[in-house]
Amino acid sequence: VAVLQNQGREMMIVTSGAVAFGKQRLRHEILLSQSVRQALHSGQNQLKDMSVPVLEARACAAAGQSGLMALYEAMFTQYSICTAQILVTNLDFHDEQKRRNLNSTLHELLRMNIVPIINTNDAVVPPPVPNSDLQGVISIKDNDSLSARLAVEMKADLLIALSDVQGLYDSPPGTDDAKLIDIFYPGDQQSITYGTKSRVGIGGMEAKVKAALWALQGGTSVVIANGTDPKVTGHVITDIVEGKKVGTFFSEVKPAGPTVEQQTEMARHAGRALASLLPEQRGEIICSLSELLTEKKDEILSANRKDMELATGRLSQPLINRLSLSTAKLNSLAIGLRQLAVSSGNSVGRVLRRTRVANNLELEQITVPIGVLLVIFESRPDCLPQVSALAIASGNALLLKGGKEASNTNKILHHLTQEALSIHGVADAIQLVSTREEVEDLCKLDKMIDLIIPRGSSELVRDIQRAAKGIPVLGHSEGVCHVYVDSEASIDKAIDVVKDSKCDYPAACNAMETLLIHRDLLRTPIFDQIIDMLRTEQVKIHAGPRFASYLTFSPSEVKSLRTEYGDLECCIEVVDSMQDAVDHIHKYGSSHTDVIVTENEETAEQFLQQVDSACVFSNASSRFADGYRFGLGAEVGISTARIHARGPVGLDGLLTTKWVLRGEGHTVADFSEQGSMKYLHENIPVPQGNFN
C-alpha cells in the first residue's frame, strides 16, 4: 500500500481486527484482575484455576480499536506514510449529511497523502439484519459490504478484497472438482456452489461476491485474491494493480471467444479423440495439412507480408529474418510434413517391451501421448505447422502461443491446421491462444498443461523456466555453438564447414557463434583463408582474450565468451589442443551443438566422445542439428536437457510410456514364501512394427 501511495495512487484500507485485539487485551486484564483478587483473598500466592467469562464483542471492539490503530501507525511510519482512523456504521450512510461529511473527510485525507484506515464501529453497531438491503443499496453487514459501499461512494477505480483462498471457485475450495474462476461475470452466479463462511468475521465468499457485484454495478472494478498465502502475498496488491492475472476479476463484459482455460479443456478433450485415431488417420491429417500449405501459399504469404510491414523498423534484423516466409520455406515445410506422415504410423501404441512376469501374467510397456503441450514461440510462424504436425502424429493436444509480431501469419496457419484436423472431427485438439495472456499466466496452468516447449530467445526460455515451477519445460536457453579447427584439419573442409555454420542462416540457434582455432594454425594459409572468407561474407569478428594477445591490431575484444550473436558476428579464440577445445566448450558452451574439423580420426573420435552436448559433429556443419535434416520430418525444438529428450526433438520426444499388465486374478500373496507361484520375468520378443 505504501509503495502504491508513493507512486501517486490514492489508497484506502478497510480492516477488521479490533474485536480480536480487544479480546486478547481484555482476557489479559481479567486474568490479571482475578489473580490479584484471589491473592488478596487467600493471603497467599497459591492460585486456583481461573476461567475467563465469555466476552461481549462490542466491549472487545471498544478495547481493541486503539491497539489495532497503534499497529497500523507503527507499520506505516516505517514507510513515511501517515494514517488516520475512521469508524463508521450503517446509519452513517443512510443519513445524507453524515454521508457528505464522510465523503469530504476521506477526500481531504487522500488529498493530504494520508491513508484512511476504515472499520465498522463495532462498539456501537447493532447485529446485522438479514436481507436488509434497501432499494438496491447494499447494507453494511461486514467488511466486504463496507468496502463495496465505500468504493462506490468514493468512485474508486479498483476494489481488492483479500480472502484466505486464491479467489472465487466454482465449488468450495478443496473439493475434488473445484476450479478457480479467472474472470467472473454477473450472469454466472447460478453456476457457483458456496462453502462455509470465514473462520473469522461474519462474512464468507458469498458475501464477498455479493459485495463485488454491487461495487461492479456502481462502476468499480473488483478483484478477489488471497491475502494469507506467503507465496502469493509478497506482491499480490501491486500485481493486481499492474493488471497481472491474480485471483478472480469481476467483469461486466464477456470476451467474444473462449478463455485460455476453456481452450485447454477443449484441446484435452479433442486430444484424447486424436490419440484414439488409427495411425493412418493421423497420417491423413498431416498429409492434408501439407497439401494446404502448398494450395494456400498465396494467402499465407500475403498474411506474412502484412506482418513483415508492421515489423519493419520495430524488430531487429535477426527477428525479421525469422518472421519471413517464402515459397521455398513453405515447400520445404510441406516436404517435411509428408515425411512425418509416413513415419507417424510407428508412434502411439508401440510396444517397447514385453515381459512374462509369471504364468498367464504378461506386462507390456507401450508408448502414449504426453497429454496437453503448450508451445510458446517468437517470430517464427513456420514453427506452427511443424509443431502442429508433430502433435498430431504423437496424439497430443496442443496449445499454441505465438508472438504478436506474427499474428496474421499464425492466424491463417492455425485455420489451415484446424481444417486438416476436421477431416476426422478433432479440430479442437490444436488451439491458438489469441487473447492477451501473459506467458507467466499460462505457466501457472499446472493442472491443465503437461509440458511447455519454448521456441524463441534465450531470455524467453529463461523466463519460462523460472515461471513454470509446476510444469516441465523442454528446450534450450541458448545456442552458443562452437566449431573447432584442429591442427590436422583440411583447408577445404575447414572453410566449407565454418562458412556454412556461420553464414547459411546466422539467426538460427544451431549457427556457429565461436570459432576455436588450434594455436599451430595461426599465421598459416588455412587461418588466413578462413579470415578472408569471413570478411568476404561480412562477418564481424570479435577476438577472444588469447587470440587478442597474439595480435598487434586486433578486432574488438569479446565482452563474453558465452555470447549468442544470432547475426553475422562471431568470436574467434585460440586453443592449445583438442582437449583444450573440449574444456573451453564445457566452460562457455550451452550444450547445444559443437563441431570438430580434423583429418585425424582418433582425435575426431575423442572429441565426439568427450564433448557433452546434445549434438556433436565431425567434419560437418553445425547447421545439420535439425529435426528435418536428421530425418525426423519436423521438430518442436532442440533440447539441451539431460533427461527425457535431447537434441532435435521429433516424434519420439513427444511420447511417454505406460505399463499394461494382463493377468487372470493374480495376487501378490500368490508369490509369497507360502504362495503357489514363482516369478519368471522372461523377456518376450517384440516384433518390428508391433502395436497394442
From TrEMBL:
Does the keyword field hold Acyltransferase? no
Gene3D superfamilies associated with the record:
Acetylglutamate kinase-like (3.40.1160.10), Aldehyde Dehydrogenase, Chain A, domain 1 (3.40.605.10), Aldehyde Dehydrogenase, Chain A, domain 2 (3.40.309.10)
Alphabetically list the UniProt keywords.
Amino-acid biosynthesis, ATP-binding, Kinase, Multifunctional enzyme, NADP, Nucleotide-binding, Oxidoreductase, Proline biosynthesis, Transferase
Q: Where is the Aldehyde dehydrogenase domain?
A: 259-544
Q: What range(s) does the Aspartate/glutamate/uridylate kinase domain occupy?
A: 2-226
Q: Which domain of life is it from?
A: Eukaryota
Could you tell me what reaction this enzyme catalyses? Answer: L-glutamate 5-semialdehyde + phosphate + NADP(+) = L-glutamyl 5-phosphate + NADPH + H(+); L-glutamate + ATP = L-glutamyl 5-phosphate + ADP
Q: Which CDD domains match?
A: AAK_P5CS_ProBA (cd04256), ALDH_F18-19_ProA-GPR (cd07079)
Pathway(s) served:
Amino-acid biosynthesis; L-proline biosynthesis; L-glutamate 5-semialdehyde from L-glutamate: step 1/2; Amino-acid biosynthesis; L-proline biosynthesis; L-glutamate 5-semialdehyde from L-glutamate: step 2/2
HAMAP family registered for this protein in UniProt: ProA
Q: Which family does it belong to?
A: In the N-terminal section; belongs to the glutamate 5-kinase family. In the C-terminal section; belongs to the gamma-glutamyl phosphate reductase family.
Name of protein: Glutamate-5-semialdehyde dehydrogenase
